[in-house]
Amino acid sequence: VQVGDSVSVGDPLAEVETDKATMEMVAFDDGTVGALYVEEGTKAPLGENLAVLLDEGEEAPESPPAGGAPQVETETAEAEPAATDAADAPAAGGDTAEATAPESGTTDGERIKASPLARKIAAAEGIDLATVKGSGPGGRIVKKDLAGAAAGSTTPAAVSAPSVTSSPPSPAPVPAVPPGEGDQRQPLSGMRTVIAERLLASKTQIPHFYLHVEIDAEPMMTLRKQANAAVAEGGNKFTVNDFVLKAVAGAAVAVPEVNASFDGDAIVRYGSVHLSVAVAIDDGLVTPVIRDAQDKSLLEISQAVKDLAERAKNKKLSPDEFSGGTVTVSNLGAYGVHSFDAIINPPQSMILAVGAVVKKPVVDAAGNIVAGLRMDVGLSGDHRVVDGAVGAEYMAAFRKLIENPASMLV
Hints:
alpha+beta; 4-stranded antiparallel sheet; 19 strands; globular
């Protein structure tokens, strides 16, 4: 919308892009757009005033109205163009990053990054933000940083000593080589920031272990070829990944200990298998979820993953469609990768890494060397939840389903 446009309840005002999806923001009142406070394509903290709607005879304020914003300080959103061709749309969550409120200056000319709520509290309590160390993204000062900071304080807020059970401080990150001529420095998007944070936490906080098995993929490939030959023109074609996903869900039912999460002083075991499927998009990857996969047929799984992947690439997923997964599958076979180890998608306790189906010489039951089709599958497990023997049982159950694919059709 533009300043001066008339809008009614339910009319779309903007498309707002979070770290994983793009959602439509609609008007909750009738009125005229009096001012736009955030430019299209720029970033704004959650709760920031984006625009103002006016009744007849009202005038727009010179600056955004204060107050009324949710006290959420770390999540961010980005206004994206309202009209984009789906084929050229940026990936879900692309180009989102932490935004900051207008910054105050310090005596040496540097800028202080602080959330609007933190500024309001500091102003009310007489706290000098220049003396407070921020814990938010990029050193941004947020509400919790002001706890214990005295009015007029000239020293940072006190930080309690760590307990004997706390982890040692993380080493400072090694800076990148300074860019030279012809190099480019590209700021992290919101999606890439979230990926970096979650995977760093996964590798440093979850004790990973890895298992690999080589599976005879010939029966699966034969059945897939027969199934696709019987499909009418324009009908659903089955992929290797469809069979893999069906087998992942079936094996999780057979070995339910892997369908679980570590939760502090307990292990949560899930009653349903909600499959997170890694989908590569322009700016990273998302993991849309096939819910209750253990109850779905091969056809239903095939149709669901195609629909989710298409909408993920076009930023049309809703938040509930990429949350709540219990097991993740990452398949890089289509990229020619034969074998790899995947990083666990927290808070889950297992991820399966699926490689390409490869033709190679194998030894048959009679001891003869013949041509065969083999697929390497790797399991990454959280050793707090899944023991090696349990992981091996799961891989055996998965292998049995892939090597006897007809059993997945009944």
